[in-house]
Here is the input.
Amino acid sequence: MHDAFVYDAVRTPFGRFGGALAAVRPDDLAAAVISATLTRTPALDPSRVDEVLWGCANQAGEDNRNVGRMALLLAGLPTSVPGSTVNRLCGSSLDAIMMASRAIETGDAQVVIAGGVESMTRAPWVLPKPSRAYPAGDIAAASTTLGWRLVNERMPPEWTVSLGQANEQLQQRFGISRERQDAFALRSHHLAAAAWAAGFYDDLVVDVPGVTLALDESIRPATSLEALAGLKASFRADGSITAGNASPLNDGASAVLLGSEQASVELGREPVARIAGRGVHALDPQDFGFAPVEAANKALARAGISWSDVEAVELNEAFAVQSIACVDAWMIDPEIVNTHGGAIAIGHPLGASGGRLVATLVHRMRRERQRYGVAAICIGVGQALAVVVENTGDVA
Here is the structure.
């Protein structure tokens, strides 16, 4: 078995729903970060990429027909480079990264580009085909932007509640107050804005051709606890989850360049991190927000370390309530989590978020000379993924 390493990671700015990236097809967003990855590694002969593994949660519109393969062709890679698309909903790009690392560890590949894309703006409405021709009744179009649609009637109703309703249940289970959720959201916005202002994202975020978007479009640096407290609950009249303490709908793409230790010569650069452990966990579908707890614990066990060794955590902020529940369960210092903002501020284009987490994590660990970090993400229908990465550079 060989070790798998991260050599580089990039992403687009994340656009808000209907915002600056609304006119950009998802396959073009994906091609943009693949092209940027090749540009940033000029020593790499594109024909030497063993595979492109790509995450996408929707795949109902322009991202259909294996968007990973389409994107690599649009990016100008040779037709000899194979590509595959992975769908584990919100965890799709992190799953692609984990699959790439396994291929490298087993010797099946030396160089893999893994990542993901989502255009939630351009997600289409779909019409189910009728079981017989010319039905007399009406047929409703279903939005494919987010959540359940065309649900199998055999699914227990408690499994198919909306994502927001599921997390209101989590709020009741753990008693996490609205005030605490709003404070968590405020921190996300302020840290993300500060990170952009300090130049943290300058080397991580690449331009989308034809679009002027200087930074993540959903960040609200001027928001306040008072403004967040004034928002109405979104899922229950007496609920605690609002548009302000949950992640927004977004468009974007991310890419991670992975390789073996031997690939360093071919890439003309040294690795920045090693994939040290992976974890996947599943539980009841409505409890998905809490699934990262055990996914991360499993990844740490496989890395042979404990939470006391971890200095950096990037946890996808699908909702403030589930993020708080996970951090509480890990019993870690909240100040090591998402120190440069999270998805509540930056955005959550489903298929791209796992790659964003890994990109932010490895960049942060290199700058702050931290040895071990964890990236974790919850996934609809009761799943979660996590990876442990080890900084291969100088550590404090």
Remarks:
- The two ends are 29 Å apart (CA to CA).
- The longest helix spans residues 178-197.
- The first strand starts at residue 5 and ends at 11.
- The mean pLDDT is 97.
